[in-house]
Every structure is written in structure tokens, then in C-alpha cells.
Specification:
This protein has two domains: 286 residues, Bira Bifunctional Protein, Domain 2 (BirA Bifunctional Protein, domain 2, 2-Layer Sandwich); 90 residues, Rossmann fold, CATH 3.40.50.800. The protein starts with 14 loop residues before the first helix and ends with a helix. The chain has a nine-stranded mixed beta sheet, with helices on both faces. A five-stranded mixed beta sheet has the order 14-13-15-16-17, with helices on both faces. By secondary structure, the protein is an alpha+beta fold. It is elongated and about 95 Å long. A hairpin with an 8-residue loop joins strand 15 and strand 16. 39% of the residues lie in helices and 21% in strands.
Length: 428
């Protein structure tokens, strides 16, 4: 059986799973379009050297690569959508009016160990807001993330917000080896207070910088965290970051979403990717973030076009797990009609199918020879709403029996009457 197994990190979505996935994607895209974002579709693969311009080295190493037979150049499956969109904006959309609001629903590929709700091919729904450097743009990302979570019916969630520049300002003030700085950054990310204390003692920065670094793991909260951070920031870079974060938090409060946001100035995950404010969305009961985003002002510059940008993305697999953990069922529907025609010529079945589909109804036909009870059982298994039975034993010629499969209620109409006014059974 090993010869027919899927490769590690691949996943099949069977019909009911696919319906749940599509439900999540549709709900999120509806939120994005309501905010004025327009969908963009990028290719699954591009030349590796082009993608690598906008992709950090660590992520480059996780790309799936292959050779283009025609040119001999190295290709790669996309591991991140944002660099693709950055390149498109810097080239094809360079002269388009700003700001650009772009949305996407797509799959990405990373050669990595599968994680919670994420495989080596996984699905994202996200947006990019290009051309706005103001705090309003970052607040819009957070507000849309909250609206997306609510559109999925999720509750008990939290948005953790940090600012890469606040930490960078502190690291600028220390004199240490690059390896020590990186180790300190990792310790801060883990909120490992003992490791942070050890490294600060080894590096021995000035007293006010030491105090700020030691405080980072605990600079978590709302207005109180911003106030404590203000007393610790003594360099221009950290001060500017704090001013920006404070204004974003004020705007989020105006949106009425302050209770969903936690400020975490010691959050440095994505430190090498984000240029400013960044955030992650967490849902109670799920041990991984369901979505993340932030500012990446330097990305377009790698493609020769300096322009501010911010964005975020939901991970669809994790969204599905979060909904499952909160007991949120996705409505599962099958065809509107299942036509069971026992007459030899099947004329009624074909005519009714066409007329009903013309009105937008979904119609499946039973083409298997079996008993009526078996056909009805099959239709219920396919979540069909109504059965149309023609030519069954005991039925008059030219009549159709309409059966509500959920309740079992029945009525009869002539086939001619249905063909004349099919809306009677579509909307009735």
C-alpha cells in the first residue's frame, strides 16, 4: 500500500472537508471585498532567482525547487505570496494610483515539518495594502483581522501586537557580537527571562538599556504596557516605534476593538521580516496563531521600487481547526434536486433537469437501476434537499412526486405543470 500513499505534508480535502474549506475562504474574501480589496492571482511557480529577491534566506531554503526543461533555469514553488505581489506592484502596477488594496486566496509550499493545521502545501487568505505608511493602514489590518475572525463565528480570540523597531532601537544601543545579539533576540522571543538576564549580564550595556532589555518579556498589556515602555525608551528609534504603536492602538480603540488587542513589546517573531508593527491572531483552544501580519516597508525596495506596504494572512487549515475547537459547524448542502425517473425514455428527467438548472437550481439525476427506497437513501446521503420521482410503481403517467428529504413530506404535480412554471418547486 505504500506505493499509493501521499507524500509527507500533503493533504486531500474530501467533499465535506472541501465544503468547510470553501466556506472559510468565501467568508474571508467577503470581508476583504467589503473593505475595498480586489483579488489578485499569482502563479504557483516562478524563477527561483526572481522569488529569492524578496524572500529571506531561511525561507529560500524551504522552497521546493525544480528545473525548467526549456531554459535550464531553476524554478521554485512559491513559499510566500507577499514577495510575488511586491514584484508585481513594482513592475506591472508601478504606475497604478495609490493606495493599492489587493486580496488573495491561494496555496503556498514550504519544505518544512508539518505543524498544527499546516502541511507542506497549505492555504492562505490575505490582503496587501500598498502605498500607505500612516498608522491608519496598520489599524485597518488589525480591524480586518478581527472582522474576519468574527465572520467565521469565532469567539475568545486575541490579537498580539508588537513593533520590531522598538526592539531594534534597544539592540542598536548595545555593543555585542552578532552571535550574542542573535541569541538575545531568541531569548526575548521565548520570553526566557533567565536567559535574557544572563545575556544582559554578559553584554553589560548601559544601565537604562539593561533595564529596558530585562523588562521586554513583561511589557505585555494595553495602555499600561505602552506607559511602561515610554519610560524605558531613550533612543529615537524606539521612541518613534512607540509613538506609532500608541497611535495604532488609539485607532483600534476608536474602531471599538481595544478589548481584542494585547500589546507585547517583547514580541520579536518575524523580526527579520517585518519593518515595523506586526501582529498575530490567537484563538482559545488552538496552540498556534490563526493569522499574522504587519508592515514590510523594505520589501518593494528589493525590486527597485521604494514604497510602504502592510498586510496580513489567515491560515485556512488553522481556521478550520479553530472553528472545530469552538464547536462551529459549517452548513453542509448537497444538490437542490435529485431526479429519479423510472420511465424507459427518461424524457421527463432530462427536460426537468434543464428547466430547473436554468433557474439556478443544482440538479443530480439517478442513473443507477435500483429500488426507490435505495435511491432515496442515496439522495439523503448526498444531502439532497428534494427528490423528484417519476414513473414509480403506483404513480399516474405524467405525474411527478416531490419529496422533502429532511421531513419526508410529499406532494404531486404534473410534469407539464412543473415544466411550465418550475419556480413553483424551486422557491416553494
Amino acid at each position: 500500500m505504500s506505493s499509493i500513499q501521499l507524500p509527507k505534508g500533503a493533504k486531500i480535502y474530501l467533499p465535506e472537508e472541501a465544503a468547510r474549506k470553501r466556506f472559510v475562504e468565501d467568508r474571508l474574501l467577503r470581508v476583504f471585498t467589503a473593505w475595498g480589496y480586489r483579488e489578485i492571482v499569482t502563479p504557483s511557480f516562478e524563477y527561483f532567482d526572481v522569488l529569492s529577491i524578496g524572500t529571506d534566506l531561511e525561507l529560500q531554503e524551504k522552497m521546493f525547487k525544480l528545473i525548467d526543461r526549456e531554459t535550464g533555469r531553476l524554478l521554485a514553488l512559491r513559499a510566500d505570496v507577499t514577495p510575488q505581489i511586491a514584484r508585481i506592484v513594482a513592475t506591472r502596477l508601478r504606475d497604478a494610483p495609490r493606495p493599492l488594496r489587493l486580496a488573495y486566496l491561494t496555496n503556498v509550499f514550504r519544505y518544512d515539518e508539518p505543524q498544527v493545521g499546516r502541511y507542506r502545501e497549505f492555504y492562505q487568505a490575505g490582503v496587501e495594502l500598498v502605498g500607505l505608511e500612516k498608522p491608519e493602514a496598520d489599524a485597518e489590518m488589525i480591524a480586518m483581522t478581527v472582522e474576519g475572525l468574527r465572520a467565521l463565528g469565532l469567539t475568545r480570540f486575541q490579537i498580539d501586537v508588537g513593533h520590531a523597531e522598538f526592539v531594534r532601537g534597544l539592540l542598536d544601543e548595545i555593543k555585542a557580537e552578532a552571535s550574542q545579539t542573535r541569541e538575545l533576540q531568541h531569548a526575548i522571543a521565548r520570553k526566557d527571562t533567565s536567559a535574557v538576564a544572563r545575556l544582559v549580564a554578559e553584554i553589560a550595556p548601559t544601565a537604562h538599556v539593561a533595564d529596558a532589555l530585562l523588562a521586554l518579556p513583561s511589557l505585555v498589556g494595553r495602555d499600561d504596557a505602552l506607559g511602561r515602555a515610554a519610560r524605558l525608551a531613550r533612543n529615537a528609534r524606539s521612541e518613534r516605534a512607540l509613538e506609532n504603536l500608541t497611535e495604532v492602538y488609539r485607532l483600534v480603540t476608536v474602531y471599538g476593538l481595544a478589548e481584542t488587542v494585547i500589546v507585547d513589546l517583547g514580541e520579536v517573531r518575524g523580526f527579520d521580516y517585518y519593518s515595523g508593527l506586526h501582529f498575530e491572531a490567537y484563538v482559545a483552544g488552538l496552540g498556534a496563531s490563526i493569522g499574522a501580519g504587519g508592515r514590510y516597508d523594505g520589501m518593494l525596495g528589493r525590486f527597485g521600487y521604494e514604497c510602504p506596504a502592510t498586510g496580513f494572512a489567515f491560515e485556512i487549515g488553522r481556521a478550520l481547526l479553530a472553528m472545530e475547537s469552538q464547536g462551529l459547524a459549517v452548513p453542509q448542502t448537497g444538490p437542490d434536486f435529485f431526479i429519479i425517473d423510472s420511465t424507459p425514455e427518461k424524457t421527463a428527467a432530462l427536460s426537468l433537469s434543464r428547466r430547473l438548472r436554468d433557474l439556478g437550481a443544482s440538479v443530480a439525476r439517478d442513473v443507477v437501476t435500483r429500488g426507490l427506497d435505495e435511491s432515496l437513501a442515496y439522495a439523503r446521503g448526498q444531502r439532497v434537499r428534494r427528490a423528484l420521482v417519476i414513473g414509480a410503481p403506483g404513480m399516474a403517467s405524467g405525474q411527478a412526486r416531490i419529496i422533502e428529504l429532511e421531513t419526508g413530506a410529499e406532494r404531486e404535480l404534473s410534469v407539464a405543470e412543473i415544466l411550465e412554471a418550475p419556480q413553483k418547486i424551486v422557491h416553494g
